[in-house]
DNA sequence: GGCAAAATAATTGGCGCCAAAATGTTTGCA
DNA sequence: TGCAAACATTTTGGCGCCAATTATTTTGCC
């Protein structure tokens, strides 16, 4: 591979996290340090550091004297993380509705339009990035910055890999429609509606049967 | 100091995190690697690893070529983290009430009693541990394990250092009473009451004026 | 005596090497 | 031919040294 891309070691974790998310490494596969060195043009020490940090983030798992392998979370964990996201993002909805302004709506409409555009013309990765951009902008409306950080982290940890997230074109288009519904709810300052859409969007279920005010139930017990 | 205490390098992060929480290192002070080596009887590499992980956890901050210093979070961040804890723990309340059984109540009563006992006879650190033990046991009632993990992590990051947490004996005794109120609410399967107590307990405000059902407001804007 | 600049000391941080452990392969034996 | 043991290869992981950078003290000059 290209010998030296000279990346800032700080962002190597993020880079690897993205690649794991993007499905470059299949879940369960072992991450050999040599390969990572070559792929990212990093030193062995940087790779080890990044691996450790990713293990702390639960994205990879460390087995002493065996190495690191990407952590494939089971259905239960995936459900649980989704539920936590629903809890946090619906809790943030109130703050979002309070803080939203015309400029925010403008931005969001632009980002939603871009996502829809890429539904037709873009690659899966571009769609993924556009979706992230929309949601980051949306989350920034929340005044609680720590909450935003935690949600972003969960988003990275959950089963939001593009490969598994949007299985069908219909699902992608549905996501696009839900983005618009969120903007509508924000514009109308309708917290309950926003919560409903967010819940459906995160759970990727239809909008029917989603209670608006009460916190989400936990499936697994 | 004692040359080799031979700790498992895995837990060094937790150990240091605890010490930071316990106020062994004053906020803002620089953590010299040599001192840490001696104090924990660890190798330089282990210290560096732990430092990096703590930086990722936002417990310490890294300044290149200057070192690491313990990160004193400002009031705003402290408030925000508290708010997130309120959101998550009140959301967990429903699941807790659903899952609680007689054996759980028994355990909780025992742990609460132990906390009260240490109010009189124990050191601050013992009180801290007993408190943690109670809350871990309480959280374990929640079926969502990921939620539990996140709350535990937040608990470690938030301003829950014993030094700042229980300023007065009156405050400690109040905490003990609140523990009992939680158990009562659990026994009565009263989700709303549990939420109320949890909110007051985390915020360390009185029980008056705490809404039971609606999510917490965010102070900082 | 006070300030600036140079020399010294202390600390961080990067890099590479080699031992320990595990995996895969070949060989030997029943 | 199937199984087991020994060998070879690969991979991880620990340790130490030294360069780069920063803090501190000393020295020299005005």
From TrEMBL, chains A, B:
One Gene Ontology MF term: DNA binding
HTH gntR-type domain location: 6-73
Top-rank taxon, per record: Bacteria
Matches recorded under SMART domains: FCD (SM00895), HTH_GNTR (SM00345)
InterPro entries associated with the record: GntR_C, TF_FadR/GntR_C, Tscrpt_reg_HTH_GntR, WH-like_DNA-bd_sf, WH_DNA-bd_sf
Keywords: DNA-binding, Transcription, Transcription regulation
UniProt keyword annotation of RNA-binding present: no
Pfam families xref list: FCD, GntR
Entry protein name: DNA-binding GntR family transcriptional regulator
């Amino acid at each position: 591979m290209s010998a030296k891309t000279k990346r800032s070691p700080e962002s190597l974790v993020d880079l690897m996290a993205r690649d794991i998310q993007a499905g470059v490494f299949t879940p369960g596969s072992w991450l050999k340090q040599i390969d990572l060195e070559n792929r990212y043009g990093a030193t062995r020490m940087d790779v080890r550091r990044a691996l450790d940090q990713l293990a702390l983030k639960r994205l990879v798992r460390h087995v002493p004297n065996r190495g690191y392998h990407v952590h494939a979370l089971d259905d239960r964990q995936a459900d649980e993380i989704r539920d936590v996201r629903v809890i946090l993002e619906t809790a943030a909805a109130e703050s979002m509705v309070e803080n939203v302004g015309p400029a925010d709506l403008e931005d969001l409409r632009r980002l939603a339009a871009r996502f829809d555009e890429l539904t037709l013309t873009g690659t899966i990765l571009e769609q993924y990035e556009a979706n992230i951009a929309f949601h980051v902008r949306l989350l920034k409306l929340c005044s609680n910055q720590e909450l935003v950080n935690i949600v972003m982290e969960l988003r990275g940890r959950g089963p939001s890999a593009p490969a598994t997230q949007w299985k069908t074109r219909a699902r992608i288009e549905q996501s696009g429609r839900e983005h618009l519904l969120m903007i509508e709810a924000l514009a109308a300052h309708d917290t309950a509606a926003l919560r409903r859409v967010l819940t459906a969007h995160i759970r990727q279920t239809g909008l029917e049967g989603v209670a608006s005010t009460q916190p989400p139930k936990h499936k697994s017990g």
